[in-house]
TrEMBL record:
Keywords, in A-Z order: FAD, Flavoprotein, NAD, NADP, Signal
Presence of keyword Hydrolase: no
Leader peptide range in chain numbering: none
Domain Amine oxidase: 218-510
Pfam entry (one): NAD_binding_8
InterPro entries membership: Amino_oxidase (IPR002937), FAD/NAD-bd_sf (IPR036188), Retinol_saturase (IPR052206)
Protein origin, superkingdom: Bacteria
The protein, known as: NAD(P)/FAD-dependent oxidoreductase
Length: 565
């Protein structure tokens, strides 16, 4: 099979090409917005600086394509029937093309803190029962804490929600747990998955952490069959099948503002495109400071940007092992904390230091998707080990901007720090996989500088603006802006961050642009895409190459055999 991108049709004459809508940034949010617009008769251009679409959902391959790793697709909530993910994808005829594998409902994530191993289940009742079983002497406090979290985050006992929000929901999660008399160990278990938003508990409103728990507890955790790249590949296919164009290696230098409204964009190199609608679906801070420019900002927005904090950036280690972890009792997902001082680790990182002991999130794609197409050959496993580390360039001995191609990768101090933190991450991961180093056949790490370079995000942040009270609910940035024709998308908008939220937000943003309630239309059964118009998926279809518009697929996908019963 050969698949190529739909070529851009240049407008004749000397003027710049004109589109109905231009989307800047091809992460899941931007691609979903573009797909809904294209499927509703809008001529759409998507511009992506990287060579691959997908943002943090993309994958990369190493060792001669022997191993494939997800950059940021580890586990996603609300993907079952009736969930937000299925709703957003159904309007694009993608629910069969992007299929979600439910992870073990008895315990989708293993949490390990010193002296305690806990398996996060589906359902609040089971969650509470397991907490009490783990900490029987703290039953009263656990019942109180979990009840409050359910009220403020899960919609239970709605008449009490306003009071509970004011009393506890807007205060730090640590204040609530302290008031409930929970021990440090019990708190560490409840907080263990907060690496899913990389922000210190003592600065995180209880409603925010409760929302994270509810995201998974309500219906479990899921992983896309074939890895994260299938998301970008299929959304791109919708856009191109409906007359849109997706261009990679096309970095936008400026959003053009004329007479107070957005009229198009200019690329680095000078190429211009015109449109009455521009969707900035990349980094919130850089959108305003670099793409729009200070002269077009309001005083209030300037003040907000000056004090804006981003979530902590990730440090990730990608490992391949010469053993199939499905043959062991190794879980597909885990969070391992070498101590119970969750806030203490964040305080060190906030101070520009990295402690000797690093918490680690462990994701095993070969276990989450046993028949994955490219993850690893039979008999091998891949692991993605994530922690977080200082964002400051000085910490990494980088004195230039990674976004502008700063040469730092060969710097001796940078490499030393990278190797040192890699060993610390491996130390923690070895608490769950003792023979990790002995079975390791591949290892590579990425730093916050890597994230900045490839995704053009402020401070290398994966999750956008920090989940402080001033950035939540009605205070979160809207998709509409003070500049007519300019809309926002991505992780820092009112629809929140994470794969589910940004895809959902992409649909909602398209609805705002079209002046329609697309959510309700889809829930009422509307489907805007005829699946027959989409690319036929055959054995040699490769989501990574399909996410590089213009690439040609040259080889069949390698599929992993099922585990023996």
């Amino acid at each position: 099979m050969t698949q190529t991108a739909t070529p851009s049709t240049a407008t004749s004459g000397a003027g710049p090409e004109t589109w109905d809508a231009i989307v800047v940034g091809a992460g899941p949010g931007g691609l979903t917005t573009a797909a809904y617009l294209a499927a509703n008769d809008q001529r759409v251009l998507v511009l992506e600086a990287n060579q691959v679409v997908g943002g943090s959902t993309q994958v990369f391959r190493r060792a001669g394509n022997k191993f494939e790793f997800d950059v940021g697709t580890h586990y996603v909530g609300e993907c079952g029937p009736g969930g937000r993910m299925q709703t957003a994808l159904s309007g694009l005829s993608l629910t069969e093309r992007i299929t979600w594998l439910r992870q073990n409902p008895e315990g989708h994530c293993r949490i390990m803190v010193p002296g305690t191993t806990f398996h996060t289940p589906t359902g609040w009742d089971t969650y509470l029962e397991r907490l009490i079983a783990a900490f029987p002497g703290e039953e009263k406090g656990l019942r109180r804490c979990v009840r409050i979290l359910r009220i403020i985050s899960a919609g239970e006992e709605p008449r009490l929600k306003p009071w509970m929000l004011l009393r506890w929901g807007l205060r730090p999660i640590t204040k609530l747990m302290d008031a409930c008399g929970l021990s440090a160990d019990a708190q560490a278990v409840i907080l263990a998955e907060n690496g899913d938003y990389t922000w210190p508990p003592y600065r995180t409103p209880a409603v925010m952490h409760g929302g994270l728990l509810h995201h998974y507890l309500q219906a479990g955790a899921y992983y896309p069959r074939g890895g994260g790249q299938v998301i970008g590949a299929h959304l791109t296919d919708v856009i191109q099948s409906y007359g849109g164009t997706v261009r990679t290696r096309s970095r936008v230098e400026r959003i053009l503002i004329e007479n107070g409204r957005a009229v198009g964009v200019r690329l680095r190199g000078g190429e211009e495109f015109r449109s009455d609608v521009v969707v900035a679906a990349g980094d919130y801070k850089l959108t305003w400071t670099e793409l729009v420019g200070d002269e077009h900002l309001t005083r209030k927005l300037r003040k907000r940007l000056a004090n804006l904090e981003m979530t902590q950036p990730m440090f990730a280690v990608y490992v391949a092992l010469d053993v199939d972890l499905r043959e062991r009792d190794t879980p597909p997902l885990a969070w391992v904390w070498p101590n119970n001082d969750v806030d203490g680790y964040y305080r060190e990182v906030e101070a520009g230091r990295c402690p000797e002991q690093m918490p680690v999130g462990i994701s095993c794609p070969t276990a989450k998707d046993p028949e994955g197409t490219h993850s690893a050959p039979p008999g091998y496993s891949t692991l993605e080990l994530v922690s977080w580390a200082p964002k400051e360039h000085a910490f990494w001995n980088v004195d230039a901007d990674p976004m502008d191609g700063a040469e730092y990768g060969r710097d001796e101090e940078y490499r030393r720090l990278k190797d040192e933190l890699t060993e610390r991450v491996l130390d923690t991961a070895s608490l769950m996989i003792p023979d990790l180093r002995e079975r390791m056949v591949f290892c590579e790490a990425s730093t916050p500088m890597t994230q900045e370079r490839f995704t053009l995000t402020s401070d290398g942040s994966c999750y956008g603006i920090a989940p402080l009270l001033k950035n939540l609910g009605p205070f979160r940035p809207k998709v509409t802006t003070h500049i007519p024709g300019l809309f926002l998308g991505g992780a820092s908008t009112e629809f929140m961050f994470g794969i589910n939220a940004t895809i959902w937000g992409g649909m909602k943003t398209a609805g705002v642009i079209l002046g329609r309630d697309l959510e309700q239309e889809v829930k009422d059964g509307a489907v805007f895409v005829d699946e027959a118009k989409l690319t036929e998926i055959t054995e040699d279809w490769d989501p990574l190459l399909a996410s590089k518009p213009g690439s040609v697929i040259r080889r069949a996908a390698r599929r992993r055999p099922r585990a023996n019963a």
